[in-house]
Design brief:
The protein is mainly alpha-helical. Helices cover 69% and strands 0% of the residues. The chain contains three helices and no strands.
Length: 126
């Protein structure tokens, strides 16, 4: 039980840190443009020009990043992030909450077991 507590704690902090990093990377105006451009480049999309957005192959995983990769829409990055990735962000947040709850449950069980063990050892000594 001691190790499960640490596993859930580590998963919670890792998941939370990655969620915050994703939101900062793709939610800050003008920073999101460069990050989205890298994602679009890795997906094999044609880069955005002055007056056109990037063009990706049909069904590409990078399609939600297209508006973030254009210079004219980078100022609206927080709105675009929520609009394009709202469900992902909500599920990711729920996963963080679930990991936190599991961590606290195992933490409480571990604390209860230590208290009972200390109580029993005190009664055995007496």
């Amino acid at each position: 039980m001691h190790t499960l507590r640490h596993v859930f704690a580590t998963l919670f902090w890792l998941s939370s840190a990655l969620l915050i990093a994703f939101c900062l990377l793709f939610g800050i105006p003008f920073v999101s443009r460069f990050a989205a451009s890298k994602v679009l480049h890795m997906a094999g999309c044609k880069p955005a020009g002055f007056d056109i957005q990037a063009v990706c192959p049909e069904g590409s995983y990078a399609e939600p990043f297209i508006p973030l990769g254009h210079w004219m829409t980078s100022a609206a990055a927080p709105y675009i992030l929520v609009f394009n990735f709202g469900i992902l962000l909500a599920l990711w947040t729920l996963a963080c909450v679930g990991l936190f709850i599991a961590w606290q449950i195992f933490r409480a069980r571990s604390k209860k077991a230590r208290i009972e063990e200390a109580f029993q050892s005190n009664h055995m000594d007496a």
